[in-house]
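Entry 14. Structure prediction run on the chain below.
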Amino acid sequence: MILSLSINNVVFIDNLEIDFREGLIVFTGETGAGKSIILESISLALGAKSNPSLVKNDCESSIITLVVKNTPFIEQACKDLLILDNNEIYIKRIQFKDGRTKSYINDHLVSLSIIKSISSKIIEFHGQDQDSTFMDKSRHIDIIDSIGSYQPELITIAGLSLKMSKLRDMISEKHQKLSEISNQRSYLEEICNEIEELDLDSNEEKILLEKRKLAMEKSKVSESLANIKSIIHQDSGIQDLTTKIYGEISKIISIKNEMINELNEDLSQIDSKLKNVSSTIEAIQQEVESENNDIDIIEQRLFSIKSLSRKYNLLSENLHDYYLQIKKQLNLLNSDYNEINKLEENYADLLKEYQALSGELSQKRRVAANEFDQAVLQELIDLKFPTISFKSFIEKSKIGTRPGPKGDDIVTIKISTSEDSSPDLIGNIASGGELSRIILAIKSVMSKRHQVKTLIFDEIDSGVSGATATAIGKKLSLISQELQIFSVTHSPQVAAIAHHHYLIEKKQKNGDSESGIIISELDSNQRTEEIARMLSGESITDQAREAAKSLQNNDE
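Output returned:
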């Protein structure tokens, strides 16, 4: 609720202070008197777009200050901003001629976004160009939900939607990340497979080199043994010589001579030793040849190690550690895939819960919409729309649409102002005057559940008169039992029913060509005169005065 308005250096206004109370408040005055300036000033204070044209010609800036009654919402916002709250909140905006503005709450400089956030809970403007809520069909669902008795469900649905949105973003981000590194993953897997197939030990190359060295040394041994064996067995070899000597000894062995016997024995031993040497050589050769067979395996193994080392530009002794490093990276990547699976499972569970609650919400919303339609239709009949139809259509969102914070319903409010026309969006059917009355009917139904405590209607009665104007006045008065209502009007019927009446006049300053604006609250007699003027024009007749009194007396 607005408690007061202060205007300094705005167009024709030097200084203006107005105190406001509850109920229906009307502003009247001749065309061009400056009624719009009052509304523009209030709008500017509450966060409207910068308007340098409001600054008085000989001034650098204008100042508009609103005093509003505190509410739980405003109180919490002030606490969040570390601004001391009180029963009254001062909202001030300075408009500079160069287009800059500054906003204050309780003398604390705040951003324009904060002002807009708070003002959205203070006041609503309704005029020819300001009723975007009703023109924008995406916001029709908010109209139905504002009067529905399912706020807990809306809060739960919004919470689920937020969780799902965050999960969806996380999943998308991880999928994108994994997509970007999918080639890298394939490359890493290839490295791991190659090193795993090699089955490399950390010091294997060093060991293989030692084995190769030893094997090559044994090869030399095998060669020497073969030479010895050749010497022993070849023609005129040692064994041949011993055989020949043994043949000659056999000729004389019959001679009984001890020395010949000893020579024979020695020769026999030599022969036996040669046979043993030959056997030993063969055994050593078999062993060496067996070990020499492994050198091919060793060489092949060393070649494989060297090839892999060159491929990845690593020392062979670092291949195993490199493998462990790559394996770790792959495990991390695989854990990301596992995490995605868990996130998707979580999302699926939330979606199932969301769909169930959304279905329940949809049923309650349809009930609320039907009650809303019937209530608004009755209000429209009261406002002299005898042939109007009013219907809220509820459809399901298309498949694939992201789960939103309001469920999966699409609400579209359509009207028809005659029996011959098909229902259509409000903005496509209603004229300016009709639109104002339709909005008034909607607001009348919404008023008891309305969070905003002040509504401003700019010439809601434009283009109507007589019984229709009277009906509008009564409806405004009815709404004002719940909300503070401001109305700029040209209708004497509306003015007569108001609780507070302000006259806006443009006055010429003494000795100056410049004019100014005077705003005064009218008493009972002054109201009669003003209403009579609105009825008859500049020449106020006694009949007009009597008619004005009659309107005032019949305001019930």
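Residues 186-329 form one domain.
Filed with the rest of this week's runs.
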